[in-house]
Structure formats: structure tokens, C-alpha cells
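User: Sugar ABC transporter permease. Structure?
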Amino acid sequence: MAKLIKGVPLYVLAIAILIGTGLPFLIMVLTSFKTQMEFMTTPWSWPESFSFRNYNLLVEMEFFGYFFNSLIVSVISVFVVIILAAMASYPIARLTFRLNRPIFLLFMIGLMIPIHTTLVPIFILTNKVGLYDSLIGLIGPYIAFALPISVIIFTQFMKEIPKELEESAKIDGCSHLRLFWNIIFPLLTPAVATVAIYNFIHIWNEFIFALVLTNSDRTATLPIGLREFYGEFSVNVPGIMAALTLGSLPLLLVYFVAQERIVTGLAAGSVKG
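Assistant: Predicted structure:
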């Protein structure tokens, strides 16, 4: 009984956090079913009648084209980042050579560079190589900016893997490439989940590079598509809420599926520096 009483403050705190984080999402969903007039007159009330007009508007505005552009860019970028970062981290974490630490420090320095300071050079480079207003032109910078943090996370995980596994494989004649794919990489599941979710959320919500490097509805991503709800003198708030509701579903789905691995991965990756 005493333990139950001591745990009451924690339960109260957990419920307060749940309400604080869940209430904005609930308001967003409820607002998406309101008309513009109803939102202006009673913004905090329950919808008088659940109207799907805003969701029909999304279909008319080619919302799902923006949605799938964001999905394509995010999935491809995250997949390539996982492969490149894991392969780059293997020699840094498991091999001993003179440039081991300097290379790792270069990736750490990459975290210190404000990405928006590179916007103009990337815009010029994208124009010169003919990738302006294309999804590939977005994928390149997204991969580059995601690599430093991803390499650091993978490196810390690989340092935690017992060297006995590697030594046993080498005795059996296993090459470094086979050792990485057959033994090391399967053990990186928590790190892969951490890197995937962290970068997916960032890329899915990225706005500035998508705004500068694209110039048509054909290549616009979801954050760019939301601008269509902003008029010269008014803003369609219920329409924006409907778009945000649908746009947040992939993030919520992926996070709920992998949330345990994310927490485990972040905790394990911070053990050593």
C-alpha cells in the first residue's frame, strides 16, 4: 500500500504530461471537422456536425501528390543514410588506423555547421548539375546533413559489440565485408531504428530546402503544399488542421511501432563518448 501511495505523484505527473501532449493533437483533429465560420465563432467547442469538407478539399488540391513526394524523399533518404552511415561507422569503430579519430572528429564537426548557411551554395550547385526542381535534388542534401549524427550513433553502438564475435568470424575466414553484413549489421537494430526515426521526422518536416530547391507542384513536398491554405487576407485553419492530421499519421505510426527501440537505442548510444 505504501508503494502505491508513493507512486501516486508519478501517475499524476504522467497523466498531466499525457494531457499536455495529447490535447493539442485532439484539438487539431476536432478542428479539421469544422467549417471556417464555425472555427471563427467557436474555436474551442466540439464540432456541431462532423464535416468532411476539409478532407474533400485536400483531394481537390492534390494534397496526396505532396504527401507521396514527401514519402518518397523521406524513405529513400533514410534508407541511403542508414546504409552509408553504418558502413562508414564500421572502420571508425572496429578498425585501428592512423586517421580513425580525425575522421570521426570530422563527422562531429559536421554537426556544428548550421545547415541553412549552406543554402546558397547548394542552390547554385543544384542548378549547375541540372537537379533543380527535382526530388533527387532534395534527397542529396538531406542525406548529407543526416550523415554526421547517424555516423556518431552507429559508431557508439558498434563500440559496444563484443570483439569476441569479430575475432571468431575472422578465425573462420570471414572477410570484413561479410563480417559487417552478416554479424555486425544485424546487431544494430536499435541503432537503425533510432537513426531511421530521427531522420525521418526531420526530413518529413523540412521546409526551407524544399522551398528553395523546388518550384512546381510536381515536386513540392507536404510542408510546401500547406502554403496553399494561406490566402492574401485569410487562412483556412480547419483545412490546415485536416492536412496536418493526415500528414502526422506516418510519423505517429512509425514512432509507435519503434518507440521502444528508439528509447533503448538512445540510451545505449550515450553510454560511451
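Residues 52-269 form a domain with the MetI-like fold fold (CATH 1.10.3720.10). DSSP finds 13 helices and no strands in the chain.
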